[in-house]
């Protein structure tokens, strides 16, 4: 198969002009630290998702039984201590990986980042009485609490409605603190490495045990970082009456979440994965790293709403989350190639298609399609480029639409592992309606790929028949000579 001149020119332009800066960005120290550092949160996200399911089983009768037994509270505690600490895992992991990649002892940097992350936030929560007045479980509850408080003497009223100090606010330890955690992790990793590189460390005699000496090595960088963090905290507290996390959330995270959680955001993400893969670059890795920064807080926010029994768009649930990306845009692999698999198994005539279809079937069930990407191939294949680009975009648009219109509920924040088979993952992340919709996306993939695969298969079959005819003719000619 030969590419046309225009296709070669286009691919040359992309490879020469577009991919170098993109790859340079992807391979920067900061992006590598985010990509590898956030991986450390994955076990807690998946395990926490299990506890989230158990505390909110999508079967009303079972959920009621779990609630009445008291076990829902235990599952909630486990969820809060795993998935609910998403920002903690991120800030430690990012600083750790950054310093590790620089070749230095990394754990002290991760712990320094954690201490700094705690230091720059107000250690307080709203008083439960005030919360009940504003967000009572029912209107009657809120009115009753407010009426009781209003009859108290002014001094007592102020006391019972004042913030509770000296406690961590779990809100900022979860998804809402994610962008701030990324910033802190990167800044601590960079500054810690720079100070070690410049020799800002205490060096003890060789007789001192290495485990002790390493901690003294970390003392000066950690001390400088924590002093700076303290002044940052003081500045925000004195001059803005807020903290760094709240400021970052309002200035950066809310707008970024809004941009990613849009139809345009879904389309761009769906297109970008296939675009990079088409030119042989790991689109899932690149897009997942960049988009995940914004999509993971969306997932955490939905998980919190689901945990509270308030998962609706009206209550602020997000449509485009990390599970939207993993379990729809990348369903059965980048490009959503299950339709191509089904064609090769049941309708293909060419030996190449049939053979690769048998190889790809099992990996496709677990959302892996490298045998197709490089074996068929889909990479740099103009004959299958249109369905490869189009399918994820169509699925992104249609999935966004069915959630936005209420046909299917928002994703519940459960993080099904990306290798979870289609339909099963749909049930975990959104119940039976989401599982049914995943089945519909498989049908969409089949419908889009079928006509293009049929033409490509016919071309391959014709080439194989011509090759067999040529080999047969050559064999006959050789026999005649004998």
From TrEMBL:
Keywords: Cell membrane, Membrane, Sugar transport, Transmembrane, Transmembrane helix, Transport. This is Permease IIC component. It holds the Pfam family PTS_EIIC. One of its GO terms (molecular function) is protein-N(PI)-phosphohistidine-sugar phosphotransferase activity. It comes from Lactiplantibacillus xiangfangensis. GO terms for cellular component: plasma membrane. It comes from the Bacteria. It is found in: Cell membrane.
